[in-house]
């Protein structure tokens, strides 16, 4: 499962102006970078706001997380089902992207042990808010991630929980973290115990 992502906080009413204001004649092709086809854009005098929703099959695969040792060692495999996404982008008067907000929800998804045929389900609801130091340059984004990922075993509740807020600079530096962050504990801090409950549940 992918881990995490990057917005200037504008009044929420601005997010929905796209639905209330008739679009001008300016083309989305003039925006840098251009939005995907599923987003609808409205061109105002001082900015452009694009917004859209989509539902797509989610892609899974190996997670890079290994459990056990010797002949019992296995790599956890992510098997997501459906991804629901909602995206809003803000462009300045010159048509350059200045902020982006992406909300993603994964439904009916699970991590699996392909050797034992075991699985642990999870639900993920995460928002990535980006603001770009250089408008239009995706490589200058500061990314703020908020949300929750719960891995649930029937009768035991959430055995691993990743929740709270993180801020990552354009060069990948973790600038801020708050809340239980099991993925950061495991991948960045090297705390293998952070995901041990998942290994135990998948061992079979």
Structure overview:
This protein has three helices and ten strands. By secondary structure, the chain is mainly beta. The chain has one domain. Strands 1, 2, 3, 4, 5, 6, 7, 8, 9 and 10 form a ten-stranded antiparallel sheet that branches. The longest helix is centred in the C-terminal third of the chain and has 7 residues. The chain is elongated and about 60 Å long. The N terminus is likely disordered.
Q: Report the end-to-end length measured between terminal Cα atoms.
A: 21 Å
Strand content: over 45%
The shape is elongated
Class inferred from helices and paired strands? mainly beta
Helical percentage: under 10%
Subunit arrangement of the protein: single chain
Unreliable stretches covering 5 or more consecutive residues: 1-26
Tally of helical runs: 3
Tally of extended strands?
10
Global Rg: 20 Å
Order of helices and strands: HEEEEEEEEEEHH
Biggest beta sheet summary: 10 strands, antiparallel
Mean pLDDT: 86
Structural domains: how many: 1
């Amino acid at each position: 499962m992918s881990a995490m992502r990057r917005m200037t906080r504008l009044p929420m009413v601005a997010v929905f102006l796209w639905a209330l204001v008739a679009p001008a004649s300016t083309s989305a092709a003039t925006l840098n970078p251009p939005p995907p086809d599923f987003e609808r854009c409205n061109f105002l005098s001082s900015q452009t706001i694009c917004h859209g929703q989509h539902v797509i099959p989610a892609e899974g695969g190996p997670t890079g997380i290994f459990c056990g040792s010797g002949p019992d060692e296995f790599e956890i495999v992510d098997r997501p089902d459906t991804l629901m996404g909602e995206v809003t982008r803000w462009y300045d008067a010159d048509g350059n992207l200045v902020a982006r907000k992406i909300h993603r929800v994964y439904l009916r998804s699970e991590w699996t042990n392909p050797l034992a045929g075991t699985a642990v389900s999870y639900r993920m609801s995460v928002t990535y808010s980006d603001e770009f130091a250089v408008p239009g340059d995706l490589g200058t984004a500061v990314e703020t991630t908020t949300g929750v990922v719960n891995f649930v075993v029937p009768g035991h509740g959430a055995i691993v929980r990743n929740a709270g807020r993180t801020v990552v600079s354009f060069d990948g530096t973790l600038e801020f973290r708050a809340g239980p962050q099991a993925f950061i504990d495991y991948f960045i801090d090297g705390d293998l115990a952070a995901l041990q409950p998942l290994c135990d549940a998948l061992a079979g």
